[in-house]
Amino acid sequence: MSGNSKLLISDFNVGRSNEVQIGTGEGVFFVLKDGRRVIDGSNTGASLGHRHPDMVAAVKAAAEEPVVNDGWYWPGREAAIDELIETAFGGDATLVGAVRFALSGGEANDLALSLAQALTGRAPLVTRERAYHGINGLAREMTVQPHWHGGLSSTDGGVRPAARLADVRQLPMPRGARIKGAEEDLPAHELRATAVELMKDSAAVIVDYTQGGIYHSPEFQDTVADAARETGTLWIADEVVTGFGRTGSWFGFEGGERRPDIITLGKPLAGGAAPAGAVLLSQRVAEMLDHERWQTFSTFRGHPVMIAAMRAHLKVHARDDLVGHIRELDAVFAAGLAEIAERHPSVTRVDGRGAHWTVELEGPDWRGWRADVAEAPLASRVANRALDAGALIGTSGEQTSLFLAPPFIVEEPEVRQLLDALDQGLALADEELEESKVTSG
What we know:
Layout: E1 22-26, E2 29-32, E3 37-40, H1 53-62, H2 75-88, E4 98-102, H3 105-120, E5 125-128, H4 137-141, E6 152-154, E7 158-160, E8 168-171, H5 188-199, E9 204-208, H6 218-231, E10 234-238, E11 262-265, E12 277-281, H7 283-288, H8 304-320, H9 322-343, E13 347-353, E14 356-361, H10 378-388, E15 391-392, E16 401-404, H11 412-440
Parallel strand pairs: 3-15, 5-8, 5-9, 9-10, 10-11
Antiparallel strand pairs: 1-2, 2-3, 4-12, 6-7, 11-12, 13-14, 14-16
C-alpha cells in the first residue's frame, strides 16, 4: 500500500499510478481527472472502447431483466449461445457443444482445468514458459510469470512468492518476433518429443496466444495439439485476450489446422460493458458429460447484464466487421513499429498481431521482477513520458516490457497518435541506455 489510500491496487506502471486517475471515457480515449484526453492504449477489456452507444443501450435495457442465478434456466442465455455459435464460429457446432458462463477469463480457465482433471482422472497440468492464465485457483497455478502469482515484493525483503499448489509443467516458449528480436525456436520434432514427455500423465495443456508478449506460430500450436491427442491430454485454447478478433481473426487458434477440446473466453466477451467469461466445450468433450453432472454453481455467472452486453457485442462485430478492421490495422501497426524499432536502440524485441503488440527494452527480463522499488522501472518511466505525449500505455507489471492493445474501434489516425506517443516515450529509454554506456565505459 502507499500513501493514505485504502485501495489495494496492482499497479501496471509502478511509480505513477496514484497520479493517473481516470475521470471518464469517450470512444478510444480516457479523460483524466485533470482534464487531459489521452488514447486508451493498453486495455484488452475495453474492446468497444468507452460508452459505446450500443453497449450502453443494452446494459440499460438489461436492468429490467430478472436477477437469475446460475442455477435456473433462463432463455436469454440459450439465445446468447446460439448467437455466439452462429456469429463467431460460423455455425460450426462441432467446436461448441456446450457452454458454461463464468465471471472472468481467469475463472473460466480455472473451471476448464478442473474439468479436465475430472474427465481424465489425472492431476498434472502443462502450460508454457512466461504464461499468464489468471489469478483464480488452477488458473493461478498455470500463471508462471512470477509477478502475477500472488506473491509479495518488498524493498527490504526481496520477493516472497505464494506457495505452489499443483504439479505444473512448462513447455519451452516460442522465441519468434515479427519485427525485431527473433530467436531460433526449438525444432518441431524436439518440441513434440518434449511435449509428449510432459503430457504423458497430464490432464490438460493450456495454450494462450499473447501473454508475456509471446505470439507463437501455427506450427507451435499444432505440434502441441498433436502431442495432446497422442497422450490423451485435453487441449485448452486460452482465448481470454485473443477471442473476438484481437489479433485479426475471430480466435487465435484459427491460424493453425488443429481445433481445441476446450476454449476459454473472457475480457472482450461482453464488449467491456460487464465482467464476463465462458468455457466452451467441443462437441467431443461435451459428449463425455452425457451421463455426468458438472456441479460448479455460482450466483452471478451468466448474469442478464453480461448476457445482454455479449449479445450486443456480437451484433456490433457482425455489423461493423471489426475482425476485418483489425486485420487491416495490422499493417499500420507493423509498419509503424518497424520504424520505431529501427530508430530506438533501447528496443530489443517487437512482436504482435492485429491490435496487440509487445515492445521489450534493454534491461532485466521478466524473471527478475520486483514491484516495490526505489525508482520506477524503465518501462514505467517510458509509459509516463508517453502519457505526457497523449497515450496511456501499460507495462503488464514487467520492468522492461510495454504492450499496446487499444479498443477494436480504433482508427488509423488514432493508431498513429498512439505510436507517436510511444516513440516519444522511448526517447527516454535511449537516453538512459546511452548514459549507462558512458558510465560503464
